[in-house]
Amino acid sequence: MTADELKGLIRTVPDFPARGIQFRDITTLIGNGPGLRAAVGQLACIAREAGAEAIAGMEARGFIFGAAVAVELQLGFVPVRKPGKLPVETIGIEYALEYGSDRLEIDPASVGQGQRIVVVDDLIATGGTACAAAQLLRKAGAVVEDAAFVIDLPDLGGAAALRECGAAVHALVDFAGH
């Protein structure tokens, strides 16, 4: 499936969550079997070429694509969680949001020292969450040099910010604007 065909499966919802925002809704993509299979296959190809030894995904939509990519490649999946969701001792990282801060956590035992992990998520916007995830995985001992996304919103600068955090950015499609 081409990038344009995948893009055609992603619904744009105007004025959500606020006026002037063009929300890129992957629900229509994941609801289309051939489209979902194509997106997962293309993300898996990126991860394979990057030498992935495991896949990490951020809660929540990164779990959808990241876990599917891990299955496709027969690799383990590292869930990057919101605070308080893991039942074991965790390590975490605080990161800045536009209006405040947030935190990500992982089980450090889920990461092997020097393990090459590719971060997979549905969308990169400002890059804050993806950069925090990469830094957290590195703190646990992983090598994180690549991240793959279904959608890039280049006008928001996230891909550039993630590259500054030391990870190559790969996206299947991009949408101009917000």
- CATH topology name: Rossmann fold
Question: How many structural domains?
Answer: 1
Q: Distance between the terminal alpha carbons, to the nearest Å?
A: 25 Å
Q: How many extended strands?
A: 9
Strand content: 25-35%
CATH architecture: 3-Layer(aba) Sandwich
Along the chain, the helix and strand elements come as HEEHHEHEEEEHEHE
Q: Strand count, sense and closure of the main sheet?
A: 5 strands, parallel
SS-derived structural category? alpha/beta
Would you write up a description of this structure?
Helix content is 33%, strand content 33%. It has one domain (3-174): 3-Layer(aba) Sandwich (Rossmann fold), CATH 3.40.50.2020. Helix 3 (33-49) crosses helix 4 (61-73). The model has no long low-confidence stretch (mean pLDDT 96). It contains six helices and nine strands, in the order αββααβαββββαβαβ. The protein has 178 residues and is α/β, with parallel strands linked by helices. The strands form three sheets. It has a five-stranded parallel β-sheet, sandwiched between helices. Strands 1-2 form a two-stranded antiparallel ribbon. Its main location: cytoplasm.
Summarize the structure.
With about 180 residues, the protein is an alpha/beta fold. The chain has one domain (about 5-175): Rossmann fold (3-Layer(aba) Sandwich), CATH 3.40.50.2020.
